[in-house]
Amino acid sequence: MKAAVIESVGKAVVAEVPDPTPGPREVVVEVAACGLCGTDLHILQGEFAPKLPIVPGHEFAGEVVGVGTGVTELSVGDRVAVDPSLYCHECRYCRTGHNNLCERWAAIGVTTAGGAAQFAVAPVANCVRLPEHVRTQDAALIEPLSCAVRGYDVLQSRLGAHVLIYGSGTMGLMMLELAKRTGAASVDMVDLNPTRLDTARRLGVSASAATPDELDRPQGWDLVIDATGNAAAIQDGLGRVAKAGTFLQFGVADYATRVEIDPYRIYNQEITITGSMAVLHSYERAAELFANGVLDPDVFISDRLPLDQYPQALDQFASGVGRKIVVVP
Ligand SMILES: [Zn+2]
Ligand SMILES: [Zn+2]
Question: Which of 110, 214, 244, 277 is at a distance of 20 to 30 A from 116, taking alpha carbons?
Answer without folding.
Answer: 277
